[in-house]
Amino acid sequence: MNDDRSLPISEYAPQSAYDYDLEHGDPRINSPTHSSASSEPPSLSPSSSDESSTLSSTPPLPLPSNEKLIYPFGAALEKARQEHKGEEAIYIEWPSNDPHNPFNWSTSKKWKLTILCCLFTLQVSISTSAYSAGQQGIQNSFGVSREITTLGISTYTFGFAFAPMFLSPLSEVLGRVPIYIVTFFLFLIFQLPIAAASNIGTVLVSRFIAGAAASTGATMVGGTIADIWHAQDRGQPMALYSYCAIAGVGIGPVWAGYTYQQIGWRWIHWVQLMAYGIYFVFMIIFLRETRGSVLLSKKAAQIRKETGDNRIKAPSDDERDNFGTLMKISLTRPFYLLFTEPIVIAFSMYMAFCWGCLYLFLVAIGLVFGNLHHFSPGSVGLIYVTIPIGAGIAWACNCYQEHYYHKVAKLKYNGYAPPETRLFGAMVGGAAFDVGLWIYAWSSYATVHWIAPAVGLVIVFFGLYFLYLAIFNYMADSYHRYSSSAMAAQGFLRNVFGSGFPLFTGYMYQALNYRWATALLAILALFLGVVPFFLYHKGAVLREKSKFAGQLLREQMAANKKTDPEGDDGDGEDEDEDRQETEKEKESDTQSPSS
Q: What separation in angstroms does the CA of 464 have from each of 440, 513, 518?
């Protein structure tokens, strides 16, 4: 997803941009004075005021890219009454504890929307793999090769890679709900031409369009979660989202295999059409807009209508006036990060390889269990249940990663641990992913019981879940307001690999045999598995040197200094004692990395 909140001062240069609402909901500054020439960000302090606050009690927020001020609703109306004339825009912001601010919604409402959107992700993933269960039937119906029918997997996934680059900027302007509704309807309706297709071309084109439309369920849901959950509360919602993204790939063939075996491949898509139609009704009824900037823009329009004062605006209204620039950034910044940021490069390559392996197994599982163990199509489909089982075990174990993160954050970092704390799960996941591949490789014999490679697959997908979740959280924590571009870069490369790997799977397994083909993947995974360990130890250094993450780190440090201006005036002896304690903690960390 690529929905960066702020436009750059120059095309790619980092800016001290106003985007703190993503993490803090309703930020305020300590003083209404500001300077457009200053590169330092505003210091943040919790606001205790509400909509009835006056200008003096609730200072406005500065927009770093210009000299305009942002006011809560009540303060904006007060300023409008005081200044009857003038052409300068009056920008509004959410008052603290405003119930219409998505960050302030009740926990139950947040979870209802999170589950609703994650079900979209689950269905998108199911559709990815359900197609593979009926490939033999498509071959027989249209007289084409296995490689041609495999394009149905690749074209669907290929749509995931490009469509978000265009759809995410539209969600900036129109909001999440219209994009969700339109794209899910297209995803739903294009099951129909697949089910009724008279030639392979119709199947492939429809799969591409359905995949492009479904991409919002695979990418934009993470943004919806970020719209309503604060960073410190986002762990479990993101864990659910990650599970649905991975588990759905395994659930699809489980039912689709027996559907094909009993009533034919076309009914795989008829069943999806009916099931997705039922969900579409629930989506229309229960889905709510979560994009705070869009809701704020509607509120500004309401105030303009009630007061007749056209100076009242939301900050995002200016971005809508620069939609062309927003689209340009959405299409170019992810690739800029992909080729210039070492963290983005390393994790994008690693995740792309792992995601390619996930889609490779959509073909490889059929080869090993169908050809070596002579499973029926329905029985082969049951083997894919190893994906949700492995991911489910990892989801259950993720509580230890969350406990570790919050423990370290509370004890050492005043509630906000550094991003590297997220990588404990990635290190465990990377090791498990490689071990599972080795088990699967060297148990792929007709004389070895089928349960052995199935266990290997469970371990593979256990590791994949941890990697997916940890990498997502690490990049979000490292790049903050640029995380959408960073994740768009990672998502693009990940889905390109996912669309490409199935195309050469059959050739690779024939040329190298079933053992060495998977062993080759295990060797590559062994080398790439170094990435989370390296970044765990050196990630802070790379972030400090980064053009984007480094700028954010300096802004955070400057904000912390402004928040505690008297921090340097304390007693010298106390400072020496604090310094000694800090050094002891660092020594303790060095001796016991697992603490």
A: 15, 24, 16
Model confidence, pTM? 0.76
Query: Residue with structure tokens 């197994």?
Result: 361
Q: Would you state the structure tokens that stand for residue 183, as one six-digit string?
A: 């794209």
| 530-545 vs 451-479: helix crossing angle, rounded to 10 | 10
Residue-wise pLDDT tens digits, 360-389: 998 899 889 988 888 888 888 899 999 999
> How far from each other are the two terminal CA atoms of the chain, in whole angstroms?
34
Q: Is 271 left (phi over 0), alpha (psi -120 to 50) or beta?
A: alpha
CB neighbourhood size of 237 (10 A): 23
Cβ-based neighbour number of residue 102 at 10 Å: 22
- CA angle, residues 11, 17, 21, in degrees to nearest 5: 135
How many angstroms separate the CA atoms of 25 and 103, rounded? 6
- Torsion over CA: 44, 48, 52, 53 (sign): negative
Place of tokens 């080729």: 339
| Three-state SS at 90 | strand
**What are residue 313's phi and psi, to 5 degrees?**
-145, 160
The tokens for 29 are 């500054």
Q: Give 483-507 pLDDT, tens digit per residue.
A: 777 888 888 899 999 999 999 998 9
Return phi, psi of residue 93, to 5°: -140, 160
Whole-number Å distance between alpha carbons of 143 and 138? 8
Both tokens of residue 493? 């490369």
Q: Could you give the CA distance from residue 472 to residue 468 in angstroms, rounded to a whole number?
A: 6
278-311 b/e (C-beta count within 10 Å ≥ 16 → b): ebbeebeeebebbbbbbbbbebbeebeeeeebeb
Tokens read off for 185: 């309807």
Backbone angles phi, psi at 143, to 5 degrees: 65, 40
Rounded Cα gap, residues 434 and 443, in angstroms: 14
Element (H or E) spanning 62, and its range?
Answer: strand 61-62
Query: Which of these, 358, 380, 357, lies nearest to 368 by C-alpha position?
Result: 380
Quote the CA–CA distance of 24 and 18 in Å, as a whole number: 12
